[in-house]
């Protein structure tokens, strides 16, 4: 008598990851669709020789959708959406390996692998001139105002020029990189009247100015290690007559009269003359026609 015995495989083994904990550093400027963790590093095995089904989730709020797996049976992790270091600089992913599909009613064994992703800031932004303000609360864009200053005609200044709203100064907004900034004048410097210190940004004079024409300088701030990252700011230098005298008021004391019950923006009148508005005048000997 010949007896044939068939042994049925029972699903009594769980999938196993060769590396249950994986870490990766990902540059901020990594291109979308780039593989982050290879399939070979994340594939699980099952002693029951079952087909493995994978699912990827994130544990960090607002980082969903950036990373994904190639398919339900392919655990390779790739970048699905462009990264922004200012939004988040790390996340933790959980990769599940099941020996049955997620929707299967059968008993399912599951293994979990943890993938830690560290985002490394890349040199993605040009220098910012300070002071500046964020555009619509977007910390990736900072708008600065033009600089302005004055020099006296036919007078040589030996000190760095005083500018508004402050001295020429720029920074690398990729703050974990903080590349050094150098400065240069790239336009508007007629007759090479002005120089800018490459390291400090201080603006000085090389020679006197003999005409009242203003200067509209273009000052460039360039990163030392990446000359393709640069910004240009405008510096307006007005040429004025030298001021030797301070302004002075025509009178030491002005007396005015107001009446009870007047509406806002009503005139204050001269004391003793209710028909004439009070006028406060100042003059300057340097500018007799002003």
UniProtKB/TrEMBL annotation:
Recorded GO CC terms: adherens junction; catenin complex
Family annotation (SMART domains): CA
GO biological process terms held by the UniProt record: adherens junction organization; calcium-dependent cell-cell adhesion via plasma membrane cell adhesion molecules; cell migration; cell morphogenesis; cell-cell adhesion mediated by cadherin; cell-cell junction assembly; homophilic cell adhesion via plasma membrane adhesion molecules
Domain named Cadherin: residues: 18-129, 145-249
Keywords tagged on the record: Calcium, Membrane, Repeat
Molecular functions per Gene Ontology: beta-catenin binding; cadherin binding; calcium ion binding
Record keyword Calcium present: yes
Keyword Calcium: yes
Cell compartments where the protein resides: Membrane
Protein name: CDHR5 protein
Species name: Vireo altiloquus
């Amino acid at each position: 008598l010949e007896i044939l015995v068939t042994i049925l495989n029972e699903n009594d083994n769980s999938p196993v990851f060769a590396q249950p904990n994986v870490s990766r550093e990902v540059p901020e400027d990594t291109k979308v669709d780039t593989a982050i963790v290879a399939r070979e590093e994340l594939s699980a095995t099952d002693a029951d020789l079952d087909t493995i089904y994978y699912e990827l989730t994130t544990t960090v709020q607002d980082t969903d959708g950036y990373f994904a797996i190639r398919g339900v049976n392919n655990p390779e992790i790739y970048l699905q959406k462009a990264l922004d270091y200012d939004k988040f600089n790390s996340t933790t992913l959980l990769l599940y390996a099941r020996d049955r599909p997620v929707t299967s009613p059968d008993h399912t064994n599951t293994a979990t692998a943890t993938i830690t992703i560290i985002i490394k800031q890349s040199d993605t932004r040009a220098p910012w001139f300070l002071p500046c303000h964020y555009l619509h609360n977007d910390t990736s864009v900072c708008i600065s105002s033009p600089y302005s200053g004055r020099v006296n005609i036919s007078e040589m200044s030996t000190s760095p020029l005083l500018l508004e709203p402050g001295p020429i100064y720029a920074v690398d907004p990729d703050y974990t990189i903080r590349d050094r900034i150098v400065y240069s004048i790239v336009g508007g410097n007629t007759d090479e009247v002005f120089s800018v210190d490459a390291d400090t940004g201080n603006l000085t004079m090389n020679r006197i100015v003999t005409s009242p024409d203003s200067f509209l300088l273009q000052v460039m701030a360039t990163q030392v290690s990446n000359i393709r990252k640069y910004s240009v700011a405008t510096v307006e230098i007005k040429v004025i007559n030298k001021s030797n005298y301070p302004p002075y008021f025509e009178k030491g004391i002005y007396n005015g009269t107001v009446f009870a019950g007047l509406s806002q923006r009503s005139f204050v009148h001269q004391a003793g003359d209710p028909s004439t508005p009070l006028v406060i005048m100042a003059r300057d000997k340097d500018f007799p026609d002003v």
